[in-house]
Amino acid sequence: MALSPEQTRCNYQSDVEQPATYEMSRIKPVIQPFAGRIGGNQEIVLDRSDPQNADLLKKIPDAAPLMSFRDGTDLRGFWDLDLWKFGFIEMIGVFSTTTFLGPLFGGISNWFFLTLFIFSFSNVSGSHLNPTISVATFFARLISFPRMVIYVLCQTLGGALAGFILRKAYGARDFTCGGCAVELSDVPVDEAFLLEFIFTLILIFLSFGVGLDPRQGKIYGAALSPFLVGMVLGTLSWGSAFVRTGFAGASMNPARCFGVYVATSFPTYHWIHWVGPVVASVAHGVVYYVVPPWGH
């Protein structure tokens, strides 16, 4: 017996559309709550005062902001396989965003590449892509100590791998890179350290302001903040290259300069690219503690 068009339509919906909808309803995106996520303005976090979140916060203490010192330094996080997976993503991000261009093209590439990688990796690792951000979020009590160590280790490894490939591609070790070169005859090392500290501190304050402030999420949302964070890095990378003769710009990313030095050689001033961001992170952490964005 022939079926009417209406019966055919009903059978088709029953056989195709309903099973597809049923299967799709069982698939959910995996997004772990994380207070230190760049670009999310702390939208995907837990309420630490809610008793229902207690068990998850024991496993992921940085799923909510303002951790206690005890929770933030819980070393059991080193045995969390997910953190190492996220660290691997950070390594890929640093490896892919490490640029060795001049200030103009380097600033532009930093802007666009960082923006795109934040969009790509924010829901996975939080898209720090820079030891400076990882250390700064730790002192702001937004990430745990194990996560910070794992991220910084993997980010540095990503920079080193990029340096090895650069050396092979360049075919020599005698080259310099903007943000990682200082002419000591023109700029004493203490002044170079001060410049690195100032620009890194600006980077941290602006990145937190546009990418980690929960109050900004209601103003422009999470979609615009990765673009603004990329703009911050690109502008500072370009502008810092012209403040002083002999100073090739602020690094603001220790992993990037570490990769450059692996490809060339370690100069006597290489420590400023690590100490400057750490000191800037501590200074910002003090301000963040005094004027936190969250109220009790």
TrEMBL record:
Keyword Transmembrane listed: yes
Membrane topology: Multi-pass membrane protein
Domain of life (superkingdom): Eukaryota
Alphabetical UniProt keywords: Membrane, Transmembrane, Transmembrane helix, Transport
Stretches assigned to coiled coil: none
GO cellular component, one term: membrane
Molecular function via GO: channel activity
Bilayer-spanning residue ranges: 111-136, 148-166, 192-212, 219-243, 271-291
InterPro entries: Aquaporin-like (IPR023271), MIP (IPR000425), MIP_CS (IPR022357)
Protein localization: Membrane
Family assignment from sequence similarity: Belongs to the MIP/aquaporin (TC 1.A.8) family.
Record-given protein name: MIP transporter
Organism: Penicillium cataractarum
